Amino acid sequence: MFSFGNLVLVSAVSLVGIALAMVVTALVGQRLGKVSVVDTTWGLAFVVVALVAALLGQGPGWRRLLLLVLVAAWGGRLAWHITGKNRGKPEDPRYEKMKQGKSQLRVMAMVYGLQGALVWFISLPLQVSAAAGDGIPVVAVLGVLVWLVGVVFEATGDAQLKAFKADSSNKGKIMDRGLWAWTRHPNYFGDFCVWVGLWLVAASAWPGVLTVLSPVVMGYFLAIGSGGRLLEKEMSKRPGYREYMDRTSFFFPTPPKRA
């Protein structure tokens, strides 16, 4: 049976945990002189929420543990990948552009405050599921399968791009092989599938289905808000990228068009 009081407790503690994670990240970012360190905290902040939900939730233990394992596997891999990707590099151009003409306080609010708020909202399926009663196991199984597709898609896309960049003969070329021939953003699409899967696990018990806006918002930011569209503003300036855009799907994978 759903417990509203338990939801309030889990949500409040989750909010405090997210805030602490962002404060620590802001201090690290100030020391390093770049705010892009928040990208590493992004995945880990969801793990914080999943841990809070697992420890303080009153719902079935198997579902709370399942969500903790799924979120920890996804968030841990993402944090590890982004840390390695950004190590030794200057500020991300997207953040550099965001900081232009703005005070440090405003930048911190836009980066750490906004991302903290998004983590809390997008993680609502985890919070609600922690306070929900018994559900329909087959829906949770479907959610795990969708989550698995997303993790494999995201990890494979990241690995393919890393290998492509590591080959010096590809310098100046556009990555259009493997999953990158089917979608221009396989990592973002995989991320979206992960959260649709987590939502399905939460939706297996009422009122988890009501948190459907969480994966929708995640999809919006991955594709349009601060993800694909924003990245392509810079990428489209590179030789050959416009042609790549013409023959390759933007977000959802489809067979590549003939050149």
TrEMBL record:
It comes from the Bacteria. It holds the Pfam family DUF1295. One of its GO terms (cellular component) is membrane. The chain crosses the membrane at residues 6-29, 41-59, 65-84, 105-123, 135-155, 212-231. The keyword Membrane applies. The keyword Coiled coil does not apply. Keywords: Membrane, Transmembrane, Transmembrane helix. This is Steroid 5-alpha reductase family enzyme.
